Amino acid sequence: MKRTMIGRPAAMTGIAIASVALLAGCGTTSAPSGGGEVAEEVGELEGSVSILAWPGYVEDGSNDPEVDWVSAFEEDTGCEVTSQTYGTSDEALSLMKSGGYDVIAASGDATLRLIAGGDVAPLNTDLIPNYDGIYDFLKEQSWNSADGEVYGVPHGYGANLLMYNTEVFPEAPTSWSVVFDDAAANAGKITAYDSPIYIADAAMYLMAHEPDLGIENPYALDEDQLAAAVELLKGQRANVGEYWSDYLKSIQSFETGNIVAGTTWQVIKNSIPEGTPVDVTLPEEGVTGWSDNWMVGSDAASPNCAYAWLDYIASPEANAQATEYFGEAPSNDAACEFRSEGQCELYHAGDEEYASQIWYWSTPIAECLDGRTDVECTDYAAWTTAWQEIKG
Amino acid sequence: MTSDAAAPPHQRAGVPVPRETPARRLSVLLSRAPRVRLGLLLTAPLFWLGLVYIAALAALLVTAFWTVDSFTGTVSIEWNLDNIVTVLTGAVYQAVTLRTVGVAILVTIIDIVIALPIAFYMAKVASPRMQRVLVILVLMPLWASYLVKAYAWRSVLSEGGLIDWMVTPFGGNTPGYGLHATVITLAYLWLPYVIMPIYAGLERVPDSLLEASGDLGAKTWRTLRSVVLPLLWPAIIAGSIFSFSLSLGDYITVNIVGGASQMLGNLVYTNVGAANNLPLAAAIALIPIAIMIVYLGLVRRTGALENL
Amino acid sequence: MRLSRPARITLGALTIAVLIVVYVPLFVVLVNSFSTSQSLVWPPPGFTLEWWGTAFQNRGALSALWTSVQVASLATVISLVLGTLVAIALQRHSFFGRQSVSLLVILPIALPGIVTGIALNNAFRTILGLQLGFFTIVVAHATFCIVTVFNNVQARLRRTGTNLEEASADLGAGLWTTFRLVTFPQLRSALFAGGLLAFALSFDEIIVTTFTAGVGTTTLPIWIFQNLFRPNQAPVVNVIAVVLVVVSLVPIYIAQRIAGAERVPK
C-alpha cells in the first residue's frame, strides 16, 4: 500500500505555495505557475490514456477479477488505459518529469512540486461534471490549487487512527498518551508507523500537551520543536514492540495480540475479523491523515481522454469502488450510495467536523509551513536522520 | 595443448586431413598464441563486469563525497567529507553497524554448525539414492519465495503461533519478535546456501584418505579434526561468505520479524528510498563494502573463493 | 570412513531433525493457503479452497511469473556464457592478475544486495540515462549469477584436467572442435548445475530487483511484495509459493539425474 513509503500529501500554507511558485517561475512571478493551458472543451477522444497512480487506484481486474473499474471506463469512452504505479512521491515526480503520462494521482507534497515545475495543467472544472458532487471541504485547498486556479480533483482521504485492544482498554482511550506518556503500561506491545513522517504525530501530541513549545503545525518544526518530538519518540521507542509499515504486519500483530495500541488505518481495522477485541478511535489531540488528487499532465498526449478519466473517476460509482478498495473516504458525496452497507459511516465520509481534525500529511521543508519567517524549519532530510536516531 | 598440434597429423584410415579453411587457420593461429586466446576469453566477461559492476560501484563511492539539495532532491557535485564524517562519528551508525555485524556473525555460525553434520551425513553416510533425495530436500525450500518464508516465520513466532502452541503446555512462551527472531529467520533463509558448498567440499574428500587415517589408528574425532577439517576449510569459508554477506545487507527480514530493530540495510534503504539522499546512502554503504573487502582479503589465501 | 553405529544414527537423527525444522515453515505456508484467515494467523480458523481457485485466475500473478521466468532464463544464458569463458581463462591459463579476476567475479555476490542494487540503479539512471525495466533487471541479475556458473565450471575443469583436450589437439582437432566434442561434454552437468543455481538465484531475488526494476516491470518476488500490501491477497501469495516449491522438483530432479549419471567413482 502506498503509504508505506513516505510522507504524503500535505496541507501546505499559502506562504509555502507562494514561495514554491516563485522558485518555479524563476522570477517571472506574474506568469501562471502551472504549465499548459486551461482546456476550453473536451474534444474528440484519442482512444488511449496513460495514468500514473499509487497502487490500488487504477485496478483493471488483473490482480483480482472482482476489482475492476477500468474496464467500464474503457468500454464507455474507447480510451484504452495504460497505468503505472509508483512507490514514493519522489518517484512519481521523476516519472512525471520523464514525460508520457496524461494523468497522475498525486499526494500533497508531490502536487505542489508538480504545479511549481509546470508538469501539470490547470483544470477547467466545467468540463468535469462530476466535480460538482465533490465535498467542498476538499476543493481548492492549498495542496490542489494555486493562484486561484484548480489543479486537482480530490479522490479520497483518510486518517491515521488509534487502534487499541478492547481487553486491555475496556474504555476507548481519549488521548494519544497511551502510546506516548503512558506507553510503559504496555511495554513491548505498542506500535508506531515506520516512517519519518510519524514525527508529526508526536508533534501533534506536543501541540496539545506542551503548548510552551509553540507548535502551530506538526509539519513545521524548528530545531527545538523537533528535538522535543524526538525526545518524546525516543521515550516511546523503549516500549515499542515493532514499527509497522505494511498492512499485513499491522493486521497480524493486532489480531494475534502481539500489539495492543498504536496508529492504524480504518481499512486495517476492517480487515481484522469480527470478534477480535480491537477497535479504533480518534483521540482528542486530533490525527494525521492524507488527501490525494487527480491531475492532468501539461503536455498530455491525450488531454481529452484525460478529462474523461478525471470525470469518470470522480463519478459516484467509480469513486466509490476505488476508495472502498483502497480503504479511505470517498471525495464524492453521492459515492456513498454505491459503497457497501455502512462503508461510508466507517470512514466518516463527508463529516466535515471529523475531517477538520485531520492534519493532512505534508513534506516538511525549510520554509516553515505555519508562516513563521523568523526561524528556519527542519526539512524532511532532517526528519529522516532524526527518525533513524530514534529507532537507534 | 602443445604447439605442434598444428602440424598435419599422419594420414590414417578414417581420419581425414582437416581442410585448410579460414576457420581452421584461425584455430591454428590461436593455438599458437595463448595470449590472444586468453584475451578473447576474457574480453567479454571483463567488459561486462568492469563496465556494469565496477564502474557502477566506483560511481557510487564517488557519490558519497557529494551532497544533495534537500528541496529539489537533486544531487549536486560539491566535494566534501560531510557524509563520511557523519557516518563515522554518528552514534547511531556505530550501534547499527555493531548490531548488524553481530547478527551476521551469529547467523553464519549457526548455519555452519547446522550444515556440517547434515553435509557430512549426505556426503559420507547416506546411500547414493538417499544422497540424491537429500539434495533435493535441501534445495527445494529455495524456491518458496524469500518473502513468503519470512512471513511464515512471522506467523510461527507470533503470540498464539506454532511455537507458542507447542510450548505453552510446558509453561513456555514464544520468543516473539526482535533480533533473535531476525537471527533465526536469516539462518533459516540462508541455510541451503551454506549446506551446498560444504557438501560439495566433503564430496571431494576421498574416502580412501579417511580410511587411511583410520588404518593408521586415528579415532573418528581425530580423523575429522586432522584430515577432514583442513580439507573442508575452504568450503566452510565459501559457505560463510554467502550467509555473512546476505545477512549484512538484509533489510526486509528485520522489518518483518525484527520488532523495532533496524540494521545497516534499513539505513541505506531509508536514505535512498524515502529521503532521496543517495550521497548519505552511499556513505553508509561503504561500511558493508569495507567489511566484506576485509573479509574476502582475509579468506583469499584459504582458497575459499574457488569453492563458492 | 568407518563410523560407529551410534555415530551414524546420531548424524541421521540430526539430519532428520534439521529437515523437519526446515519444512515446518513451509508446512505453515501450505496450511495457510487453505486457511480462511486473510492475515495468516495461527491456528487457521477454517478451511477453504477459495485462494487456490482465485490464484490461477490472477492475471497479475501469472504475468509476473512469466516475467520472472524470462528474466531468469536470459540472465542464466548470459551468465552461462560469461561464466564459462572466465572459468576456462582462469583454469587453462596462468597470467598476472588471475586472482583479481576471480575476486571480480565473486564481488557481485559477496557484496550485500542493497549495495549492488543502489550502485546499479545509480549507474543505469544517472550515468547511462537508461529507463529502468526488463533489460536492466536482466543485466543486474546476470552480473551476480556469473559466479555460480564460474565456480561449477572451474571445479569441473580442475577435476578433468587437460589430458583429453591435449589428446584431441594432437589428433588434429581445432580449438572449436575440441571444445565442442571434448570439453563441452565434460562440462555439461556442471553447466546444468551452475545454470540451475543461477536461475534460482535470479528467480527469487528481490533486493537488487527492487532497485533495477523501475515501475513497469513486475517480477514474481516484486509482485508478492506488492500484494502483501494489497487487501486480501496474502493467502493467494501462499498458494503461489506452494506451487513453486512443487514445480521446482522437476528441474532439481533432472539436475540430480544428470549429475548422478555422470558421477565418477570415488
Automatic annotation (TrEMBL), chain B:
Residue ranges the record marks as coiled coil: none
Tell me where it resides: Cell membrane
Q: Which CDD domains match?
A: TM_PBP2
- One of the GO BP terms on file: transmembrane transport
Segments passing through the bilayer:
40-66, 101-121, 133-157, 177-202, 223-244, 278-298
Question: What keywords tag this UniProt record?
Answer: Cell membrane, Membrane, Transmembrane, Transmembrane helix, Transport
> Could you name the Gene Ontology cellular component terms for this entry?
plasma membrane
Q: Does the keyword Nucleotide-binding apply?
A: no
Domain ABC transmembrane type-1, chain residue ranges per copy: 97-299
In terms of superkingdom, the source organism counts as Bacteria
Q: What is its main location?
A: membrane
Gene3D superfamilies registered for this protein in UniProt: MetI-like
Family indicated by similarity: Belongs to the binding-protein-dependent transport system permease family. CysTW subfamily.
Write the protein's name: ABC transporter permease
Automatic annotation (TrEMBL), chain C:
Q: Where are the transmembrane segments?
A: 12-34, 69-89, 101-120, 126-150, 190-216, 236-255
- Give the record's keywords alphabetically: Cell membrane, Membrane, Transmembrane, Transmembrane helix, Transport
Major subcellular location class: membrane
Query: Is Ion transport among this UniProt entry's keywords?
Result: no
Compartments (UniProt record): Cell membrane
InterPro entries hit by this protein: Bact_Polyamine_Transport, MetI-like, MetI-like_sf
- Any coiled-coil ranges, and where? none
Q: Any idea where the ABC transmembrane type-1 domain is?
A: 65-255
In the record, biological process GO terms are: transmembrane transport
The entry's cellular-component GO terms read:
plasma membrane
Matching entries from SUPFAM superfamilies are given as: MetI-like
Its membrane topology, per UniProt?
Multi-pass membrane protein
Q: What is the similarity comment for this entry?
A: Belongs to the binding-protein-dependent transport system permease family. CysTW subfamily.
Q: What is this protein called?
A: ABC transporter permease
Annotated organism of origin: Labedella phragmitis
